[in-house]
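Quick one before lunch.
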Amino acid sequence: MHAGLKRINISLDSLDRTRYAAMSRRDALDRVLAGLAAADAAGLHPIKVNTVVMRGVNEIDVVPLAEFCLRHGYRLRFIEQMPLGPQHGWDREAMIPADQILDQLRAHFELTPSAAGAAPAEDWLVAESDCHPAGRIGVIASVTAPFCAACDRTRLTADGQVRSCLFAHTEVDLRTALRAGASDEDLAELWRGAHRSKAPGHGIGTAGFHQPTRTMSAIGG
Ligand code: SF4
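Model of the iron/sulfur cluster complex:
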């Protein structure tokens, strides 16, 4: 908080230690849960938890994760798997579409669409039950119902590159300009320029789609 951090998103794909370790390639579930609790204690609210559901891997975690997040007051968002992984092995058939995630959720929770509908998540209000308080869950249909036309996201990577889209094949190098003494206005103009050439959509599933070289872990979400 003192360093200017106000919000945090945490990836958590399973509450099962073995499945978590298999998916993330590290036995670190305890550390993630401790991190969530620490973020909560530090007041970084609302704490957002991102989950990617994969067929045959962690579908059984949908409801437990939802109950866990509702109980703790975390904002869980299920996100359709996108072709941004390190193996370049995305398979549309292995992706669980948002509709199927919602079917699972509706079987266990009373959901009402949230009027707030904070893009890009499709936001749902969850009614209180004996097991959890009322809360919110998001289901982001980034592949099956892309919202690129309404996307106002811009991303600055840890190495100083502006990305106008997760799937951009080009980046604008702010770090070099900054080190060369660029003014704030110069940097702002470079940043604006990155977005003038932004593609109209991600094009996943089209013949011309190619996964960008930079993977999600190197973009930072
Ligand atoms: S424009 Fe790019 S970053 Fe924005 S929603 Fe579409 S794919 Fe995602």
